[in-house]
């Protein structure tokens, strides 16, 4: 779906929530295969059984990539992804956990250099099936202004 | 390879560099499949040809995940990934571009609460075959101290 | 996105259109891998060059599956997929072709046995980048009625 | 294997049966990834547990594609897939179910326009490990005639 | 297809030949992902361009696995794969090359210990589209005897 | 990691050992998809339950490819893979088994023709979590000599 929104249209506090997705053993195998990260924390069930966390753990970049992908539902031709701040792995995600994502606009900033654009900050929170937070970050969007900022 | 290093062992300025990896159309197809992000910027060559960038662009989360995976060569049993700061998409990556990663320890911080651990910051820079920076971020590691920090 | 609609809410003539997606060599390789169909029409570029169509052809089930997947954007808790009629492969799809899908409600029928449900027919048309039809079918949905049908 | 058969060679009642294949969680993850259909019916085990069917369900297009792929064992250079009729999802397929396919030639028709070809109809029936039918359809083949049809 | 054959039924000189399959960039990406071998010879087009062979090379284990898979067309319930001898990489395989396989029974041996079985040797030769040999090996099958061997 | 070693630098008895990796159902599904080998021994859990081994077995080429991939940790620009001898499948590998690999230089040979190179033999042994050998082979490397061999 395409929804055109200028920087002026973003409302602080606007919030959305995705459906859930279960993280499977296949996801971890595919992510190891895509990234080349075959660390035993993700790939060796036998060794993991000897560790504190007992079970294989999903890659942090897997949960981040899937969670961000789950929020990619609407295209805004006036916005582009600028980066991420304060990405933190709060709890491990295990095989069989089901994650869902909430995203809330928390801040609007001037761009340090461009008057034609602003930066919208969307707080991302990924939770598991027990409503525990597993990952947080801030997604920064570079958004075109309808009217350039004044000096 | 397993190399045990305590927080005290980390040296600011220590730098390493990965080999290269070409980002392929297959990588983008697989990443769309893993994340569910089928935005036309990544998947619709026909539409992309009408846009400023002319060609399909790799997902930001793909370049980030692959780049971080490329740095996952040595396991330190005393460290774990804590999160990322200031992740920025500096330039687009196109099909056929070859990326490599440099990683440099730039900072060591006390952990705000735990005296038993410190935070080591590794600056990550992903470049393409023309030595242009495409992505930067700071990778934070939570690292055990050999000796707890004093108050 | 979840949108609840009963059989009575379906409007004949309601139409929607997806964004585009380029069919890649990777898609064909993955589909062969999923289905086990490694026929040379899809997998042997050397042999294909000696045939009338000159190039590898996407599997019919690939174009069908991807096209139907592209229409799976909104969940209606009152409807479920019942089947398909008159699925026809009108033109081959080659590597690099970009397909998009239009879907139009064309008919509403009583269910032969259940008074609590009706059948809604959605005509699916998949086209390539030259607006040529490559695949058509009718997607049948079993949809709950708000009020059971009279005898 | 290549076996050349003209339309005249097709025998109504000719039947064949495939070996079995277990539908795995990985198949569903890969099919979601190929089609972009991440509906919770297939991907969210936690939500599925609250529904009537209790467990994740394989995509209809997955079972159809795999089942048809399982029948793609012999190449007939005189035939090509023309389309499908009356595709119906009779029962859900769950992770761990093992499907097999029977295929029987049930009808031979003149082509509405071409005298050089006929249409052979192969009834496809996919069953699970309990011999319950899960999917049926009619596969239509366009088959060259050894001798053109008379008017 | 299932064809039951005892050791006595194997005929030296019996030969079969597969259809062709084009080795794609996607195959190499998937094989790297499955095996964890991301060596630049397979993954870094930029670096390969500076080497003698100029282009990315398929993994030896990829060509071997695909070639052996291409010969896995008939199941003999009386035989099982015992191992391989004299596997040699004769020429590199590049992206876009089309391989096919010939397999010929060249030898029948007593099993060193079991009188109930013999060892059948099938010479495997994988060639590219220019009929150049790229890989050879001997595939050893452990095959049940109809009648145990005499002392 | 790149470590340059000439033939003269290889030491008989030098041994290394990899970390472990659990073989998953997803690995088998992906390997079937890559090779086209959908034999019921690997893919049909229902049929396997009626056989002596009771459970699905990993493809021999999967265990070989993964095991060899696990040893591909250091690049030696003076060596290349020449082939394999005496590859034997000693025990089946089941879903959930965790394999690790030991590799030991056991022999150094003159090359039959080239005085500029020698052949180094590395004995590969793949074991499961119970320290049982599942696969052995000899990996032959063609390695450049610092000084050509005398006649």
Question: What secondary-structure arrangement, pairings included, does this model have?
Answer:
The structure is a homohexamer of 151-residue chains.
Chain A: E1 15-17, E2 21-22, H1 25-35, H2 40-43, H3 45-48, H4 60-71, E3 79-89, E4 98-110, E5 117-127, E6 133-144
Antiparallel strand pairs in A: 1-4, 2-4, 3-6, 4-5, 5-6
Domain MaoC-like (chains A, B, C, D, E, F): 17-122
Pfam families (chains A, B, C, D, E, F): MaoC_dehydratas
Protein name (chains A, B, C, D, E, F): MaoC family dehydratase
**Contiguous helical run count of chain A:** 4
N-to-C series of helices and strands of chain A: EEHHHHEEEE
Structural class of chain A: alpha+beta
Q: How confident overall, as mean pLDDT of chain A?
A: 97
End-to-end Cα distance of chain A:
35 Å
Query: How many DSSP-defined strands of chain A?
Result: 6
State the helicity of chain A in percent bands: 10-25%
Q: So, the CATH homologous superfamily of chain A? A: Hotdog Thioesterase
What kind of sheet is the major sheet of chain A? 6 strands, antiparallel
Detail the poorly predicted runs of chain A. none
User: Architecture of chain A in CATH?
Assistant: Roll
Share of β-strand residues of chain A: 25-35%
If you compute it from the alpha carbons, what radius of gyration of chain A comes out, rounded to the nearest whole angstrom? 18 Å
Tell me which oligomeric state these chains represent.
homohexamer
Number of domains of chain A: 1
CATH topology of chain A: Thiol Ester Dehydrase, Chain A
> Largest interface, and how many residues on either side?
A-B, 32 and 32 residues
Shape of chain A: elongated
CATH classification class of chain A: Alpha Beta
InterPro entries (chains A, B, C, D, E, F): HotDog_dom_sf, MaoC-like_dom, MCH/BMMD
Pfam families (chains A, B, C, D, E, F): MaoC_dehydratas
Organism (chains A, B, C, D, E, F): Skermanella stibiiresistens SB22
Protein name (chains A, B, C, D, E, F): MaoC family dehydratase
């Amino acid at each position: 779906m395409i929804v055109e929104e200028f920087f002026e249209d973003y409302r602080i506090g606007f919030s959305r929530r995705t459906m859930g997705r279960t993280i499977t053993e296949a996801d971890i195998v595919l992510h190891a295969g895509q990234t080349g990260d075959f660390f035993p924390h993700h790939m060796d069930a036998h060794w993991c059984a000897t560790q504190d966390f007992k079970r294989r753990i999903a890659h942090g970049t897997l949960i981040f990539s899937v969670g961000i992908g789950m929020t990619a539902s609407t295209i805004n031709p006036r916005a582009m992804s600028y980066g991420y701040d304060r990405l933190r792995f709060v709890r491990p995600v295990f095989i069989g956990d089901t994650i869902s994502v909430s995203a809330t606009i928390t801040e609007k900033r001037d761009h340090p250099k461009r008057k034609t654009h602003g930066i919208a900050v969307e707080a991302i929170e990924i939770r598991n099936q027990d409503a525990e937070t597993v990952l947080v970050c801030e997604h920064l969007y570079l958004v075109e202004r309808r009217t350039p900022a004044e000096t």
